[in-house]
Specification:
This protein is mainly alpha-helical and about 90 residues long. It contains 3 helices and 2 strands; from the N terminus they run E-E-H-H-H. The chain has a two-stranded antiparallel sheet. A hairpin with a 6-residue loop joins strand 1 and strand 2.
């Protein structure tokens, strides 16, 4: 009898050899395959949305740059003070 990877669980030698080289049952593989396919679709959908988002962000950045360059960007003195205090507390 050999000790398996799970502590405290003994695995008979004949079972160890039978399971070490065998593949998972077909039903388990289908379940795993379906789970991977579902995850792949989610990743693809998220990738598509992320790739679409930068355009909007770039437009916002350009608008802010234009406001700063023209001197029309509204700045709150309270926000500035709060940011300075936050930076000082962080360091």
């Amino acid at each position: 009898m050999k000790i398996g990877l799970n502590p405290g669980i003994a695995v008979p030698e004949n079972n160890l050899q039978a399971t070490s080289g065998s593949r998972a049952p077909a039903a388990a593989r289908v379940g795993e395959e379906s789970r991977f396919t579902s995850a792949e679709s989610s990743v693809n959908a998220l990738s598509a949305s992320v790739l679409a988002a930068p355009e909007l962000r770039l437009e916002r950045i350009e608008a802010l740059r234009a406001q700063i360059a023209e001197g029309t960007y509204p700045v709150s003195s309270q926000q500035i003070a709060a940011s300075i205090l936050e930076q000082l507390r962080a360091h």
